[in-house]
Amino acid sequence: MIRPVKLQDVKAIKEIYNEYIVHSVATFETEPLQEEEMFSRINGIAADFPYFVYEIDNRVVGYCYAYTWKQKRAYKYTLETTVYVSTEYVGKGLGTLLMQRLIDECRQKGYHVLIACVTAGNKSSDSLHLKLGFKQVSYFKQVGLKFSRWLDVIDYELLLVE
Questions:
Q1: SS3 annotation, 77-104
Q2: Beta partners for 52?
Q3: Residue 24 CB partners (closer than 8 Å, separation 6+)
Q4: Distances from the Cα of 102 to the Cαs of 33, 76, 105, 131, 140, in angstroms?
Q5: Beta strand extents in 27-134 (DSSP E only)
Q6: For labelling, which of 30, 113, 137, 158 has a CA lying 20 to 30 Å from the CA of 75?
Q7: How far apart are the C-alpha atoms of 162 and 147, rounded to whole Å?
Q8: Tens of pLDDT, residue by residue, the chain (162 residues)
Q9: β-pair partners for 65
Q10: How far apart are CA 119 and CA 160, in angstroms?
């Protein structure tokens, strides 16, 4: 079931995200987050932007949200998206369902463009975004260093109103 995030979801979201921080290059964060930091982030984003979780048997197993892409006022109708699914549920379609709900919500709220920033080589994220209609609009070389590797980043864009 997909539902809006609640602040009691902090621990589950932290655990999902920290797994990616410690074991992957899907995020460029390098240190696991504590619950206080995750609480602050969720609270700050969910107060103004769509934020959803996927729940199975009363357990949060995935989440997604949209938030400010750039700080300047002219960008206020463009949001950046994030989606993470517990590693035990990757490849089961939950990310697609979460992102479809997020896209629909952003359309309803009058946003114009969604941007997804993906680490190059993240095949599951690439295919997810392409399947949802995002188009690749940039490729940045060696912009992040994690696990002693220089990493490239791809930006994908989805126009919500064409």
A1: CEEEEEEEECHHHCCCCHHHHHHHHHHH
A2: 4, 64
A3: none
A4: 24, 17, 5, 15, 26
A5: 51-56, 59-68, 78-85, 113-119
A6: 30
A7: 40
A8: 999 999 999 999 999 999 999 999 999 999 999 999 999 999 999 999 999 999 999 999 999 999 999 999 999 999 999 999 999 999 999 999 999 999 999 999 999 999 999 999 999 999 999 999 999 999 999 999 999 999 999 999 999 986
A9: 51, 82
A10: 23
Torsion angle (degrees, nearest 10) of CA 97, 103, 106, 111:
170
Closest C-alpha among 27, 137, 23, 140 to residue 83: 27
Question: How far is Cα 107 from Cα 104, in angstroms, rounded to an integer?
Answer: 5
Reduced 3-state DSSP string for 5-27? CCHHHHHHHHHHHHHHHHHCCCC
In our burial notation (b when 16+ CB lie closer than 10 A, e otherwise), range 1-38 reads: ebeebeeebbebbbebbbbbbeeebbbeeeeebeeeeb
**Is this prediction's pTM over 0.85?**
yes
Classified as helix, coil or strand, 33 is: coil
One-letter amino acid at 97 equals L
